[in-house]
Design a protein that fits this description.
Blueprint lengths: L1 H9 L3 H15 L12 H15 L5 H24 L3 H4 L3 H4 L3 H22 L7 H19 L19 H4 L2 H18 L10 H30 L12 E6 L4 H4 L5 H12 L9 E4 L12 H10 L5 E10 L13 E9 L5 E6 L13 H4 L22 E2 L14 E5 L28 E6 L8 H17 L3 E5 L4 E4 L5 E5 L5 E6 L8 H5 L2 H20 L7
Parallel strand pairs: 1-2, 2-3, 7-8, 8-9
Antiparallel strand pairs: 1-12, 3-4, 4-5, 6-7, 9-10, 10-11
Length: 556
């Protein structure tokens, strides 16, 4: 039954072939949250490879490159469209203003991301010598393309294919060794390799194919076994010493309600009411999500007074907030431009702001407009209604909290991640920290604090994908994560990526929890991308050696 279906697929031409490749890419997106159907990769990627390989038969080198470029783009477009279609929900929050941008958000953005896979597929033809080298070449260039996708034009590593190999906490543990990029390369290798089972081969080529399949099988067993071993050594009740009690507040306020004119008081009161639940005096820190205040809190003494009345002695508030810096004096007739920042403010128990972190990784076209001087001439503006958008922060996200106040237990240093920043591996800056106390400097973080507002995307796949990706940062760093979201998903996650307590998407409530303990520094934290670089160099050496030693057959 497999052979007739395979013959049918390989016999397709023109638009039918492109449509099938597109559908195979869309199928691969089911491996991402919230579905986590990882086995589909063993159908979609071999299918793409076999169709690509057959499509290059009897074509000139120039035609082969264009065919690889086209089919690689179709495959990537299917994957990114099926995985990112929910981005359109953000555009419809203010549909009257931004509805025109819906096709660009839903289809244009995935089409642009698919160019990474298109170029990788075409470049892989440089080493199209034998079946095993074809697989290794695609693995090498697609892994490199995914890595570049995380950096070019500010980067967008959302739904990097490596997440498909980590659908549950058991399979997340490998990220502590080789990080997201290392797991991504392994995922491509494992996903493409089943194609070798149906490709004809003899002699030395068969031995190479068997060796590669054996390496993949061993890697899959090691991937699973390491996760089981690491989790078996975990202490489920381990908490930070000295213990630190936190209250996470999830108000579940829709994006429309949050910024509706005249609704500011109702939004603020919702936070105050949820926060005032019994037991607040036993808490060390109260945590509110990203941009919690529907106004500039530092310009509202009346609101600060109400926070002061809320907080018992020794309890501080950590809240996402928008703030504006006073303009610097200028000697011209042009009024100085106000600079808005989206970040975290630390308030002591007297509601005094004592620490700031300003978000550094801003969302393109959401919080700032790339090449603003040019594109704003065409009426393209931010989704966030701030004059000129937000400014990127220049202070450290390795954050040491204010030691003053009446609390006997200071909060341990944290790594702060505001919303979008949580999708970036290795995101840890070493710039000076901006605080009222200029003597405080960044210290090694003992936990990760991620505040976010996923209300832009409603109850769709986006918040689930964002949450899954954020969990990986805890595993990579060996640090517990406290995640506080406006509409969800809020959670306390230990350093193994296990969810200790959570609030579901679309619910309001609070979580009181002791901060979980940090682990010793992970291999990934110590060496960052070095293991990935070593693996890529190994693949590169294999490709170069194969190009010299393996006689290229006719493409078939």
């Amino acid at each position: 039954m497999i052979r007739p279906a395979l013959d049918f697929l390989l016999g397709l031409r023109g638009k039918s072939r492109a449509a099938i490749v597109f559908l195979l890419g869309a199928l691969a997106a089911l491996a991402m949250a919230p579905v986590h159907l990882s086995p589909v990769l063993f159908v979609s990627f071999p299918g793409f490879f076999l169709i690509l390989n057959a499509s290059l038969t009897d074509k000139t080198p120039r035609q082969q490159k264009w065919m690889a470029l086209w089919l690689g783009w179709c495959f990537g477009f299917g994957y990114f469209l099926a995985g990112l279609w929910w981005i359109g929900a953000a555009v419809l929050v203010d549909g009257a203003t931004f509805a025109w941008a819906l096709p660009f958000a839903v289809a244009g953005f995935p089409a642009a991301l698919a160019l990474f896979w298109a170029l990788a597929s075409a470049t892989a033809l440089m080493f199209w010598q034998s079946n095993t080298l074809k697989i290794i070449s695609l693995v090498f260039f697609l892994s490199f393309a995914e890595f570049l996708r995380g950096f070019i034009l500010t980067g967008f590593p959302w739904n990097t294919i490596g997440y498909a190999a980590m659908p549950s906490v058991l399979f997340m543990q490998s990220a502590s060794l080789v990080g997201l990029w290392g797991v991504t390369a392994f995922t491509f290798l494992a996903a493409f390799s089943p194609a070798l089972l149906v490709l004809p081969s003899t002699g030395a080529e068969r031995r190479r194919a068997h060796a590669l399949l054996l390496c993949v099988a061993i890697s899959l067993v090691a991937h699973t076994g390491f996760g089981a071993m690491r989790l078996s050594q975990a202490n489920p009740d381990s908490v930070a010493e000295p213990p630190v009690m936190l209250r996470l507040v999830q108000p579940n306020i829709t994006q429309q309600d949050k910024w509706r004119q005249g609704n500011e008081e109702a939004v603020f009161q919702t936070y105050l009411d949820l926060s005032a639940a019994p037991g607040l005096s036993d808490i060390d820190a109260l945590i509110w999500p990203e941009s919690a205040f529907p106004f500039l809190i530092l310009q509202r003494p009346d609101a600060l007074a109400r926070i002061d009345a809320l907080l018992p002695d020794g309890v501080r508030l950590l809240s996402g907030a928008v703030r504006v810096k006073p303009p610097e004096p200028v000697f011209s007739d042009t009024p100085p431009k106000l600079k808005f920042y989206n970040g975290l403010i630390e308030f002591n128990d007297r509601a005094e702001p004592v620490g700031f972190y300003d978000k550094q990784r801003l969302v393109p076209f959401g919080e700032f407009v790339p090449f603003a001087d040019i594109v704003e001439r065409f009426g393209i503006t931010n989704l966030v209604n701030m004059p000129g958008g937000f400014e990127p922060g220049i202070n450290s996200n390795d954050f040491r909290f204010d030691p003053s106040g009446t609390s006997e237990r200071a909060l341990p240093p944290a790594q702060i991640l505001i919303c979008y920043e949580a999708i970036f591996p290795n995101f840890s800056s070493r710039m000076p920290q901006t605080n009222q106390d200029s003597t405080r400097v960044a210290s090694p973080a003992e936990w990760i604090l991620n505040v976010t507002n996923d209300a832009w995307f409603g109850p769709l796949a986006g918040p689930y994908q964002h949450f899954h990706q954020a969990r990986l940062r805890a595993v990579e760093e060996g640090l517990p994560m406290i995640r506080v979201a406006n509409t969800g998903i809020s959670a306390a996650i230990d350093a193994y990526g296990r969810i200790e307590k959570s609030l579901a998407l679309g619910t309001a409530g609070t979580i009181d929890i002791a901060l979980p303990a940090a682990l010793p520094s992970t291999l990934q934290k110590r060496f960052r991308d070095i293991p990935f670089a070593i693996f890529m160099m190994l693949l590169g050496v294999m490709l170069l050696a194969g190009r010299v030693l393996v006689k290229p057959p006719n493409i078939s």
